[in-house]
Structure formats: C-alpha cells, structure tokens
Fold each of these.
Amino acid sequence: MKEPLLSLNHLACGYHQQTVVNDLSLTLAAGEIACLLGPSGCGKTTTLRAIAGLEPVTSGSISILGKTVSGPHQQLPPNQRGLGMVFQEHALFPHLTVADNVAFGLRHQSRSQRQERVQACLQRVRLGGLDQRYPHELSGGQQQRVALARALAPQPALLLLDEPFASLDLDLRRSLAQELGDILRQEKVTTLLVTHDQEEAFALADRVGVMQQGRLEQWDTPYNIYHAPANRFVAEFAGYGTFLHGTVHDGNTVHTSLGDVTGRSRAPLQPGTEVEVLLRPEDVIADESAPLALPVTRRQFTGASILYHLRVGANETLLCQTDSHTNVVEGDNLHVRLGTKHLVAFETH
Ligand SMILES: Nc1ncnc2c1ncn2[C@@H]1O[C@H](COP(=O)(O)OP(=O)(O)OP(=O)(O)O)[C@@H](O)[C@H]1O
C-alpha cells in the first residue's frame, strides 16, 4: 500500500494534565481533502494544532510522509513540517500588502519566481488586481482568500485549515466552501480542515472524521457517515432524523409501529433484537395513495423543498421532506410511506 501522507497513531494530547484528544488514529492519502467535524470543545482544533507542531503529544505519534514529526519525546518545529496553515489567530500581516503577505513563505525563491507564484496564487483565489491593497482595505471574505493564497504559495505537503470561514456570514461561507474545494483540487494539495458545519464538510471532503469528547467516532466517506453511521452519535450529528423503536425481523427488515423499515444494514442484525431505527426526512415519502396518515404539526418551506413535522404517538416527531409544491397544511394529515435504502438500527440498551 502507498505510504499515507498523514498518519495519526493512537494520538493523545491535552492541556495541564487534562487529556483532550484520546487514542485518535487516522490516515490521509496524498491529494485527499478531509474534514474533522464535531461539537464545540470536542478537540478538533487541538488535533490540528498537534499536527502543526503547536501542541505536544502525550502518547502516540504523528507522521507526515512516513517521517515521525511528533511523539511523546519528539516534536519537530512547525516550520520544518512542510505545512500550510490557515488558523484563526494566524491573521494577515496588517502592514504588508496583499502581494507581500502571499510572498511571505517564498523568501528563499528568486524575485521573479516569487512574483510569478504570488500572481498565480492570487489568480487562483480570484484576487488578481488587488495585490497592492492592504488587509484593512479588503472585505472579510477577501482577507480569508489572501490567507489561503499565503498558505498555498509555498506548495505545502499538507494544508491545515481551522474553521477558515467561521467569521463570515452563512451565504458567503457556503459559496467560499465550494470554491475552496475547487481550489484545493486544482492545486492537488492534501488538506485537513476543521469545521462545525456538517453540510460544509460533506460538500468539500473526500473523508470526514466525526469527533466526540476527544475521540474519533468514525473516519469515513461523507456517504457512509450519513447513510451508514457507526453509532447513534454520528447518526444524529450527520443530519436530521428520527429514531423509532422496532424489532428486527430479519437482517434487512425492522418492524415498527409505522410499518416495516427495510434496507441494507452496515452491521448484521439478529432477528428478535429490540432496536432504534433511523428515518431521515428523505426516507419518509409523501404519497397520497399510502394508507399511513400522520398529523402535520409544522410545515417549514425552504424554497426547494418542504420539511414536514409529523406527530407519531404521543410526543414523537417524524420528519418528511417533500417537493415544495405539496400543499398539505398544519393540522391536516399527510399520507406517507417509508422508503429507506439503508437500515440504520442500533440495539436498545
Ligand atoms: N490553551 C488551552 N488551555 C486549556 N484548555 C484548552 C486550551 N485550548 C483548548 N482547551 C480545552 O480543550 C478542549 C478542546 O478544545 P478544542 O479547541 O480542541 O475544541 P474544538 O473541537 O476545536 O472546539 P470549537 O469547535 O469550539 O473550536 C476544550 O474543553 C477546551 O476548553
């Protein structure tokens, strides 16, 4: 097998004797884009900082291109790791122009090489023509692009981005996230990115790591994180859905109060087991001819689709996503059928 570009082996680190990242292992292949996703405080930034060489490691190790850069008794300085970083605290130099900011990591190159690379990077992030401006003369989104150009300029082996768009409003974030994916793929730069935003992670990444309390719960493709989550935490973090109580009938079917839920299961299910089975909004299909009718408690029009909240039993809510022309209103019944393709079920404890 090809040597991974980045590998974390049972990594643990923390602050003041307190462990914040625990037994975390992952590998990233050259050219891949990966996102660490998880709730606030779960250790995403600490993991990134350890990879950058900004935090010591208490046990385990970090290797880049097969070379150990961090271990309990070893810490290669950040500037010798071949990394590019866009961290929130690594702001632009305010007294340098855009061009000089981007040229910062290229001091060892000749003047003409440097100028050429600066222009290429600024074009790449669509800031051509703004090279003589100062950071305070740019919008927040433009400043983030300069920071990205500066990190890309020296062609790092690995790029680390910590919530690069956190300070921007949602619209700008979403469009920049898409653009970022294009830029990273054109530059073929291996990237590990931290975000809170599940949609941003899915849209950008080849691989997503979901973290909880310092542990990596799953390291997988966005598709598997969503459709074949390893546990209930990942399932709930990855998107909307409702867990219904049920009993496994066979490996592909669970009986529930709303009927049979069928699909392929990630893990084998033993007949007779009591489980909680996941229904995502797109698994619940509006169908006028279906016998199952559930009262609508809320109707959220989102433009492209409608998200219906349907009451099940005394106080459970099932979500149903329909096209935006469905005109059933709150208080009425919506007829639905279940149309799962994947069976996501976890044993009831
Ligand atoms: N310099 C520090 N000293 C002590 N504790 C810290 C320090 N930095 C972070 N922590 C703690 O370590 C834990 C993990 O923090 P970290 O910043 O890695 O989380 P995160 O997942 O990146 O969170 P967020 O999404 O909010 O940025 C938190 O409990 C935090 O309070």
Amino acid sequence: MSDAVLELKGVTKTYNAGQPNQIDVLRGIDLSISAGEVVALVAPSGAGKSTLLHIAGLLDTPTSGDVLLAGREMTRLNDRARTSARRDDVGFIYQFHHLLPEFSATENVTLPQLAAGTPRRAADARSQALLERVGVAHRAAHRPAELSGGEQQRVAFCRALANQPKLLLADEPTGNLDPETSERVFSTLLDLVRETGLSALIATHNLELAAKMDRQIRLDAGALRNA
Ligand SMILES: Nc1ncnc2c1ncn2[C@@H]1O[C@H](COP(=O)(O)OP(=O)(O)OP(=O)(O)O)[C@@H](O)[C@H]1O
C-alpha cells in the first residue's frame, strides 16, 4: 500500500466542454506526495496552477481521473462527505490572507477549530500556541487590518494548520510581500511544516524558494514534469 497523502491519477480538467472556447487546462496529471514531503509547484501564469490546487484540495472536481487523500478515494464522495474531508484533512493558504476582517487574529484561528467540533478552551489554547510559534502572539487581539502583511500571512498559516490537516496547499503564500519579508515569512512556514511532519504542495514563482523544498515540479501545457 502506498504511503501517499495525496495522489492524483490521470486528472483532467476541461472548461466549456464542447464549446468553441473549450479549454483543456489539465491533460492527465499523475502526482503522488508522500507523508512529510514538501513539493514546490512552479507554473507560468494561466498554466492551471489554481485549478490543480483546487482539485487537490477538494474545492473543485476533475473532469476525469481520481483524487485520493490518505489513500481514500475522494472523487466519488457526495458533497457533504467531501466538505468534511476538506475541513478535517486539508489546510489552505492563499496569496492574500482572506482572514475574517471582523475577528481578531486568535478568533480567526479558533473559528475553524470550533467548526470542526474542538471545545472552545482547547481551540483557544491551540490558537495561542500556534500564534506564539510564528511570532505574532503579541498581536493576538488585533484584527487583520491592524496587522502588517507579514503578520497577516503568519496568522493565515496558523489558521491553515489549526485543525491539524494531513495536507497543506498553498498558492503563492508570500507572493504579496516584499522580497525580504517574503523570505523570512516563507522560512517560518517551511519550519512549521517540517516540524509538523505535514505534506505540502506549495505553488511559487520564486525559484529560490522552490529550491528549499524537497522536490520541484513544473506544470506546463496541462502536464507535470520534474523541474
Ligand atoms: N471557471 C472557468 N471557466 C473557464 N475557464 C477557466 C475557469 N477557470 C479557469 N479557467 C481558465 O483555465 C486556465 C487556467 O486557470 P488557472 O486559474 O488554473 O491558472 P493559474 O495557473 O492559476 O494562473 P495564475 O498563475 O495567473 O493565477 C486559464 O486559461 C483560465 O482562463
């Protein structure tokens, strides 16, 4: 049996099928990410990176092919089962933080835990520990607008890891930060991922950051190759 946390088998995605503007974005993707492996996804703009991450993270379904999370077939699950697998097993980080503006940093990390059934006190304690780990505990009561860009992304990392997912998916997680902050914040993320033993697929245009990961893959013309 494979120890893969994420497996994509022959995944295709076609938009506007059968119409003149049909786009075959993914043309048969095979990808396996094993436990604890951190993989960089490098892709030119428009190559289908977001589509691939959304399919891997169960936010979208492939036109054909299979998605397995921790060995479990996801493609044929109903919406409800897929939603609960996503909530329990996958953490997302986007280029922009997407934190809830009305809530404090702590609340942004606690809320997904409450939604997953963690008792309040345990959730708050975990939020506090995560915020300390990434160096923003002193900003715990602040709302996102009161945080710097780097701090916002650090809180977003905590939120993504709040429910102890098996897989982390990140789309240019430090892409909106200046190069120096990006480098520092990215190091925090990589350290956190490695400490947690989490598997991760992290899209980046930055080849220096990509080189810090275990493996680099390139998405081009709808197919994956080793970078
Ligand atoms: N819902 C949709 N309907 C039709 N076409 C779409 C849809 N979503 C994406 N596309 C097209 O599929 C292609 C890949 O889109 P995707 O968002 O996955 O690219 P990307 O690699 O993430 O790009 P970028 O790096 O610029 O964000 C693009 O040509 C886009 O126009």
